[in-house]
Amino acid sequence: MGSAPSLIAELEETLSNGSSAQRADILRRVSDLFLAGADNYTEDHVSVFDDVMSHLVLKIERKALVRLAKRLAPVANAPVRTVHRLAEDDDIKISGPLIERSKILSDDFLVQLAQTKGQAHLAAIAGREQLPERLTEVLVDRGDSSVTLKVTGNKGARFSRPTFMKVMDKASDDVRLAETVIGRTDVPPDVFEHLLRKATEVVKTRLLKSADGDMRVQITRTLAEIATEVARERAQVDKDSYSPSALLQLDTAKLKAKVAEFAKAGRQNDTIEALAALSKLPVETVRNLMRAGATEGILILCKSVGLGWPDVRCVIATLGGVEEDGAVKEAFERFVTLSNDTSARVIRFVKSCKAVSKADFQRML
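Below the sequence we write its predicted C-alpha cells.
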C-alpha cells in the first residue's frame, strides 16, 4: 500500500490547491478503497487508512463527513482514530450514525459522551443495540423525556435497580413512558409496585386500558394489594392516635411523652392538642397563643408545663419551623433564661382571657 507519510504529502498538496469538490472526491475514493477490502486488511493496513482519513477529515466539508460517518458506522474494523474523531463531533448528523451503530466505540468513550454532550447525542446512544447499566444510568439521569422513553424501549438496554426506580418516578405522570416500561420483561416486582404506588390516576387508568390480559391482571392485583396496605396503615394510625378527649384521660407523665412523640413525628395538630391537654387550655387558645407569641409563645407554654429542652426543641421545630442551628441556639438561650414564674403568669393571663393579642402578649413579657 505504500507508506502513509508519502501518501499524506501527496494528499496535502492536492488539498491545498484543490476545490471543495476535489477534496470530497479524494475522501470518497480513499473510503471506497478501504471499504472494498476492509474484511481482508491487516491491522497495519487499517492503521495506514486511519492516518490518511484522520488527516483528510480536518480538511473536508460537512456533507462529505456526514457521508463518511454513515459508511464507516457498520464496519467492524473501521479506522479507530477516524471513527472517534467523527463520533465526538458536535454535529449530530456527523456523529450520530457512529454513536448509534459503531462497535469501535468503547463503553468508557460512550459514557464520556453521555456525560458531556446534548440531548441529540444522548438519543443516539440510547438507540445502540446493547447498553450496559452504567450507560443507561447516565442516559436516565441526564436525558429528557424522549431520551428516557427511547432507552426504556430499548430491549438491549440493561438497568440497575436504582436506575429502574428513577424511570418509574418519571413514569408516574408520563403515560407513554409508563406503557413502555411495563412492556419490559426485566422489571423487578417491587419496582413495578413502586410505579403503581406513585402513578397518577390518569396513568393507572391508561395502563389498565392498554395492557394485555396477563398484565391487566397483574396491575389489578398489585393495585388491590396497595389499597389494602394503605387501608391497614390508616387503620393503624387511627388506632395509635388520641382524640382530645382521650388525651385528657392521661396523667401528666404520659401527656408529656405524647407531646414529645407527636412533635418528633412532625404531627402538628396532635402536638397542639397534647399541649392543650397538658396545660389545661382549650385547643383554640393554644393555637392563638402560637400565633400571638410565635416561638416565644411556644417556649413559654413548654416551660409552664415542665417540658425539658430536648422535647422543646422538637416542639419548636414542628410548630415553629425552628431548625437552623443559629435559631435553635437563640431559642435555647431564651428558654433557659425564662423563669417559671414568668411563664406561669403568662399562662394564667391567657386562661383569664378569651383572646390574647400580640400587644397583650408582649406586655406580659
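The chain has a mean pLDDT of 84.
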